[in-house]
Design goal:
about 400 residues; about 40% helix; Aspartate Aminotransferase, domain 1; globular; seven-stranded mixed beta sheet; 12 strands; 16 helices; binds pyridoxal-5'-phosphate; Aspartate Aminotransferase, domain 2; 2 domains
C-alpha cells in the first residue's frame, strides 16, 4: 500500500512538473539514502552550513552560499541580509525598517507572488516600468534607465526575477546598481537547467541569487540555495542559525562567519522560522552534486522513452502531439486537443484527469490554448502506462 494511502490520502501522477502544490520533484534514491544516513548522526548546524557554503561555492562560483528552506525563503533571507548587513541591532528590528533604507526597486513586469518574500523582510517595493505590451498599449518592455531614475537615498537594493526572457537584461541592471553601490538580488528559482545558470547570474555580478532545491535539482521540496557575496551570506547565517550561544565559546568556521566583524551575537533572527534540517541540507547537497555531475542524464534519456510511449498511445485520438526536448533536462509533451471532436474543453479534460483513478495532474499553463502539457520529470514506466491509459479514456472522440 502507498504510504500516502496508509495515512488516508491518494497519491497522484504528477506530470505538472516541480510545482510545490503537487509535491515538487520526486527525489532520487541516492538523495533519500543520503538523508537517511544524515538522520542517524548529529552535527553542528553552523559547521554543516559552512561546509554547504564551500560546496555551493564550487558549483556557482559565488563567494559563499547557504542552504535555505526553498528559494522563497532565500529571497526573504537575502533581503534581510541586504537590509541589516552585519549590524545585530538592525537584525533584531526586522521586519520593522523604520528609519532604515528599505526600498527595493523592481520592474513592474517582474512582480509575482514571490515578491511577498521580499516584502516579508521589511522591504518596500518601488515599481518601475510599465506593462504596456500586456496592456496592448505599447511596444516596449521595462528599460534600464527607469531603474536609475527611481534610485533615492532610501534605496536599499534591486530585486530581479530571472527568466529566459527577462527585460531589461540583468547585465544592464547590474551595471546601474554597481554605479550606485547597490546590491542586486536575483530570483533564479526555476532557472536550472541549464546547469550553466548556476554560475551565469553570479558571473554577471549579481550580489545574491536564489535557486530552488526541490525543482530540477531534485533535493528536498523544502530546500533551496542562496549564493553570493560573502558578507551577505554571513548576515544570512546570523539571521538564520540558532544563535542561543555565549560569544566567548562560540566558534563558527572563520571562512563562513568572521566573529571579529560583529559586536555580539544577535538573538534569533528573521530567518529562524525558515528552519532547514540537517537531513535536508545533506539531501540538497547530494541532489546538487548529482545535478552538476551528469548523474541525471540517464533519467532524462529514460523520460524521452516515456514520452514516446505516450505519443504512441494517443495515436488515433483527436490530439496533435508535439515533443519538446531541451538540450538539458527532462522532455515534455504538448497535446493540442481537438476540443470539438472530444466534446470537452481542455479545462474539463484536466478536471476529469484530476478526479480519476489514478489521479493525473497536468501542467495547467496550456489549458487556455486547448493544450495539455505533460512534463516528464516525475514519470516512471508504471506511471507512464497508467497515464496513457487515462488519456485514452478521457480524450476519446465523443459520440
Ligand atoms: C518556484 C519558484 C519560487 C519558489 O521556490 P521554492 O523553492 O518553492 O521556495 C520562487 N520564484 C520563482 C520564479 C519560482 O519559479
Amino acid at each position: 500500500m502507498s504510504i500516502y494511502e496508509e495515512f488516508g490520502v491518494r497519491s497522484i501522477i504528477n506530470v505538472s512538473g516541480t510545482s510545490t502544490r503537487v509535491g515538487g520533484a520526486i527525489m532520487p534514491d541516492a538523495v533519500m539514502d543520503a538523508m537517511v544516513r544524515a538522520s542517524k548522526e548529529s552535527v553542528s548546524m553552523t559547521e554543516l552550513q559552512a561546509a554547504a557554503s564551500r560546496a555551493i561555492v564550487k558549483v556557482t562560483g559565488a563567494e559563499a552560499g547557504y542552504v535555505t528552506a526553498g528559494a522563497s525563503a532565500g529571497l526573504t533571507q537575502g533581503t534581510a541580509a541586504i537590509l541589516a548587513g552585519l549590524d545585530p541591532g538592525k537584525m533584531e528590528r526586522l521586519p520593522d525598517t523604520t528609519g532604515m533604507k528599505n526600498e527595493f526597486i523592481i520592474a513592474r513586469e517582474h512582480r509575482n507572488g514571490y515578491d511577498h518574500a521580499v516584502r516579508l523582510a521589511g522591504a518596500k517595493l518601488i515599481e518601475v516600468g510599465m506593462n504596456e505590451m500586456v496592456a496592448g498599449a505599447g511596444v516596449r518592455r521595462t528599460e534600464a534607465w527607469e531603474f536609475e531614475a527611481a534610485i533615492t537615498e532610501n534605496t536599499a537594493g534591486i530585486t530581479y526575477t530571472a527568466t529566459a526572457d527577462s527585460q531589461p537584461p540583468l547585465e544592464q541592471v547590474i551595471a546601474i546598481a554597481k554605479k550606485h553601490n547597490l546590491p542586486v538580488l536575483v530570483d533564479g528559482a526555476g532557472q536550472v537547467p541549464p546547469t550553466a545558470n548556476l554560475k551565469r547570474f553570479i558571473e554577471m555580478g549579481a550580489d545574491l541569487v536564489a535557486f530552488s532545491g526541490g525543482k530540477a535539482i531534485r533535493g528536498p521540496q523544502s530546500s533551496g540555495i542562496l549564493c553570493g557575496k560573502r558578507d551577505l551570506i554571513m548576515s544570512v547565517a546570523l539571521q538564520h542559525l540558532d544563535m542561543d550561544e555565549f560569544f566567548h565559546i562560540w566558534e563558527p568556521p572563520e571562512d563562513f562567519i568572521d566573529k571579529d566583524r560583529i559586536v555580539g551575537i544577535p538573538r534569533h533572527g528573521i530567518g529562524r522560522g525558515f528552519k532547514v534540517a540537517k537531513e535536508e541540507v545533506i539531501g540538497l547537497l547530494m541532489g546538487l552534486r548529482m545535478f552538476v555531475d551528469g548523474s541525471y542524464e540517464p533519467d532524462y534519456a529514460e523520460r524521452r522513452k516515456h514520452i514516446e510511449y505516450i505519443v504512441d498511445g494517443v495515436s488515433g485520438l483527436p490530439v496533435e502531439p508535439t515533443v519538446i526536448a531541451p538540450k538539458e533536462g527532462a522532455p515534455s509533451l504538448h497535446l493540442k486537443l481537438d476540443t470539438a471532436a472530444i466534446g470537452k474543453s481542455a479545462f474539463d479534460v484536466s478536471l476529469e484527469l484530476k478526479r480519476g483513478n489514478p489521479a493525473v495532474f497536468v501542467q495547467e499553463e496550456g489549458l487556455p490554448d486547448d493544450k495539455l502539457i505533460i512534463l516528464s520529470l516525475n514519470l516512471n514506466q508504471e506511471r507512464t502506462e497508467a497515464l496513457t491509459q487515462r488519456l485514452r479514456e478521457v480524450l476519446k472522440k465523443k459520440g
